[in-house]
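Note to self: user wants both folds in one dump. Writing first protein now.
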Amino acid sequence: MAKKGKQPKQRQHPSHKGFWAEHLVTILLASVLFGLHVRTLPAGLGFGDEGEMAAAAATFGLTHPPGFPGYLIPAWLWTKLFFFLEPVKALHLFSAVSASLLMIATTRLFRASAPTTRSATVLAPLAAFATMALPLVRDYAVAAEVYIWQWLWLVLFLEQFVRYRDGQRPDHWRNLWICWAVAVTIHPFSLFFGVIPALHVLLTRPNHILRLVRGMLPAACLSLLYLVPVLAAQRDQAFIWPHGTGLKGWIDYFLAAEYRDRLVEQGDVVTLLQHQIAAVLPEVFGGGPGWLLAAAGVATVVLLVRGVRPKPARGLAITLGVAFISILPLVSHGLANSLDRDSYFFALFLSAAWLIFLGIIQFYKVSRFVEAPWGTVASVALSIAAVLWLHLDQPVTHNRYASFLAESIRGDLPRDTLVLVKDDASFFSLKYEQDALDRRPDLVVLHLDLLHKHLDHYRARHPELDLPEQAPESLGAWPRLLVAAEAGKRTIVWFGDASAVAGIAGTHPIGSVWWLGGPKYRTDSFLDQYLALPERERQAFDSDATARAILARIVRDLALFSLRHGNPELAYAILDQWLELHPTDQQTLALKGLLLIRDKKLEDAERVMAPIREADEPEEAAIHAQAVLLQARGLDQERWNWLHRHLRTVRRSIQLAEDYVAACVALGKFDVALDYLDRHPKAARLIPLRGDVLFHSGEAQAAIELLEGYQRQRPADARVLEKLILFHTLQGNDQQQVKWIQEFGRRFPNHPANRRYDELIMQKALQN
């Protein structure tokens, strides 16, 4: 028989305080928020993961690891419900609806943690409304991404936890684990938040371990949703992310093994941790706001564990919670280049808004003001006006850049053309239009990165292609290999950097792609396609950094192609035409400056690159171009000063690292160069630069031994062998020089440097 004891006091929440205060204000603000988001819904597909998510949701397919079934299933149902809309537009609407629901859930969270006063009841939706106006939330509220949907369920989870902590009702305990489990199926990053209730129970009621296990049972059942991608991948007509074959392939898929392998390339665990810290700290503590957000996260941990007794246990809970907040970004793969950081920052922004709300309701005058009916109306009106002022400066987007990109690549290509790409933007744009909109399904689109890692998948998926059984050693070998294998069978085009297909016979630009090994079949200019767009769409392109960068890269490739084929006037004309439309495009300015430096027009280069010198944060290519200009003018000290001034950017780039080390060597600052290389997050890849420093500092033998050891570790790196040949040439060691030239020819038979080395050996023979 259950022992009768004093029942815990049930907390009365403001849900019983009247319809006006409880519901109408929240519904009104959520409706205004929905209207603002609908107003700025994109006109078409965006970049990032949108093409992949939209294609997978429309066809019930398979996204990148680990599948995100908690988003994919409702998104697929939503596209079926709104069948009259294009799938990506339906998903944009889904995010806008989710953002309004997120505002309502945030209101419930704020109310659950506040006293049951009328002022708290009114201020909670106002604080939630202000939180939803943050740029981070606003951007994802109109994007086909998982994050708004994930944040909604995490906020519901926190609300149920607060209600359980204060009321100890079993239904809240069950509900919080269900919400947490749904959030985990949406994005595995949500796993970490399960520490909060588990920590609370273990420290306050250690005898409730059975309740903890029982509460997690629904979560365990919901985790079976991760089997949905396995079923989805069995359908040929769906968008399928490449994955390994067999049981091991699926295990690697769910554990995101390719991301793990990418990180392992950084080196040992210490190097990996250094790289992660170097990426995280500038993001989290890059200034005042970073410190404030971190403080808000710490304060929220204190708030959540306030019911822990005794004090030592509370201290332990706070310590563990703070450690949990601190290490979150470190376990995210490559936070600096990952959208996972947005989940982390939203948690901190929510914490800050939560604490501000709890602080405001403590002020007596504020409470009296909003409790009055006219005060409520005034507060709501002021909040709506402030958010409208912030939102109305956001232009109504007419951006169709991804669709334009797909159209410019696809054009009127012959049937069954093989399209090779190496960037996610073009790949997802084409696959979305193929799989979701059934446009040109005859084209075979291959992402070279994915092909290189998942060759078995592509061999099974495309038996009509003559793919090799083993992938070549380097990714760059694929275009040449595929041209040789498919010659005469199908047309092959390449969308990407022109240097990747340099040397393939018959290569020439057509529109925005490169025709590989075949006759030219059309002559329309990519710039003509771009200029033919309506001005409104062109302005929308220019307002998006990703779209502008892709379009500018195509223009630069066309200019470089003209230059390689002996037409520098056309190269200058193409760059001038683009710069007339985009006078501040730093990378194009840098390219034009480098061409002028090559032609010995240093004064013109100085004038062209003036905007680069005036920029607060010049881009990597711009910093490199200015360094080359200073070197050409013989200003080594100014070159070193310029690079040292932008050292934070220099540390992120291999090219700029080479520039900085060269500047140090020119000035005899060998210790500075070695210290820089020791501290660089990618020190393992910069060993050839260390060899340069050692050689020029008089330690030639140490430099040669270092490079000989390095080339054994990385036999596919041609630059290392070139340095060895150079060092032996400068040392006058003819025997070793010939040895490494022969080794270079054996490893890289098609390298253009072989002709130069053959001429060098011939000269030596004639001299002897």
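First done. Writing the second protein, which came from a different request thread.
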Amino acid sequence: MTARSGEQLPNESSRRRRGRRGSGADGGARGPRASFTELLPHLFAQRGLLAIALVLGLVAAAASLAQPLLLGQVITRVESGEPLGLLLAILTALVVVGAVLSGLQHYTLQRMGEGVVLSSRRALIRKILHLPISQFDRRRTGDLVSRVGSDTTLLRAVLTQGLVEAISGLIVFVGALIGMLVIDPVLFGITFGVVVVALAVVVVVSSRIRPAVAKAQEKVGDLAAQVDRSISSIRTIRAAGAAEREQAATEKDAEEAFSLGVKVARISAVIVPISFLAMQLSFLIVLGLGGYRVASGAITIAQLVTFIIFLFLMITPLGQAFGAISAVGQALGALGRIQEITSLETETERDAERSPDGRIEPLASAVAEGAPAIAFENVSFTYRSAAPVRADARALVRTGRGSRRDAEAAPAEIIETPVLHDVSFTVPRGSRVALVGPSGAGKSTILALVERFYDPDSGVVSFSGADLRRLSRAELRAQMGYVEQDATVLAGTLRENLLLAAPDASDAACERVLRAVNLGGLLERGANGAAAGSAAPGAAGATAAGAPARAAGVAAAGSEAGEAVAKTASAAVSAGPATGLDLPVGENGLMLSGGEKQRLAIARALLTAPPILLLDESTASLDGVNERLMREALDSVATGRTLIVIAHRLSTVVDSDKIVVLDGGRVVGEGTHEELITSTPLYRELAQHQLLVPEDQA
């Protein structure tokens, strides 16, 4: 990453914007594209089924090509009065065999199509879940969801709508051409000329499908993002009386997707009449000219009938070829959007290159005894976000009805927001350090850098003396428990949320941490089968006397020495069945109060018993009673651990070993509460507003 000094960065309130053109998310107006050769690996990934489908197609093609020849023999024998013998039976058998083989091939192709969709979705899911956090800063969630759901489905059309069928049909096509050429070169020449002209027109028209499909899929992604935004914020939208405006905006995206879809349909529709005209014209020519040549004695009736059947055999794969060209065009447009994501680097892909030593070191050998748990040395950081470059969809729709010119591409707008400037401080092992300051001071960004969601532009963040860039992200994060500012609760049950970071934890351990953070009432609610939407009884059922036992339970759970005590405490407090952990929490924790969600997030972090806890406003949504109980629980679990706590309510951190005061992305003071009252005006002002300064010091 390019180093930047703090002096080169503008102040906190400034934002720099610059335009650039690129590929992928920053691609041109026509959006990401893929070539046919890039589609082949998706087909070859299903090589076993592909081989079966081709073999079935070849056998079916041979059966189809034999039918006109046998029918010609039947007509000849009828004309000459000879017995038919087994010809009719053989012809009937060939027809039945061809039909059965076609059915088997159709199933095989459908199975292949589903396999291609599955492999594409796996690749996307694998990539999306490991992208750098910065990619999620610049991309809309709904658009990513659309690529997994909608774009991958279009790849199925490559197989189910004719590509592989066209390959086997090519055998029939070539065989029919040879048969027609042998029967009558004159009829063949005229018929083949019509087919070549039609095919050339189809290829030219189909070249316009790919960019049109890319734009249509892009707008479908915008629609999905808009729907996701509206649904996830439905309560805020209803409370603000903005439902009608959101409906209008979403419907507008839907209408634009419709318009772009219609444009694709218009282009595709041109292929249908061209194919129809080619077939009809070929058939009429054969009937008219063929009848004349029969009358002149150039060919026999049996030969004409055989020629006509070969014509029909040629027309079927020709139609498949036209459909395959259209399907491939659409699939390549969708594949371009898929590859735009799968070609991105994962979060860890270049970690070895970014390491100062050029390699990732094991945590055990990289850390230094006696070094601070966490240290910041002259760290500066800037958020960078960018909207994907794309054509203006509204202009595209407007001009599409008139001149049909594509909207001009605008370069991507890179927005840079400097957040931290030359930040330096240390967090000693086993200490509790609080980060305080006004909103926007960079407190949450510091925790994001500690978790290595981002790397600093300049300076060093270290863990136990080791530069974070030298360490495996997985090993580093295993040493930390992180509770976000907006407590994240996943749809599912209490158990599923708790086991997210500790999948092997027992039910007893899960119940223990829930009771320690005063969520025992949720266990009772789940065990008794109470209504999921009822008010939380956790706080009402708690007493101050029970807090020490709960805190002791968590402390014992976090240390091997106290394991026996923890088990005893668990047996004493966990009278209810473990099924209480199966209580549904609803989408985004809908069934929980704000305080319950925050406490559940803390319990999830405590369950892993990490040596470092990062708490971002962990008590912001708690009432006074639960805040006190939570502080007592954290006090007990803090023994032998390092805590970095962000808080706006200074009353929750006044007893911290060190308080770091931030303002405008810079450290303006360090020390204890008493020291900062006298040394740091900003801290004294914050404390005065919260009535934490004695009158004689105010």
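Dump finished. Worth passing along: The radius of gyration is 35 Å.
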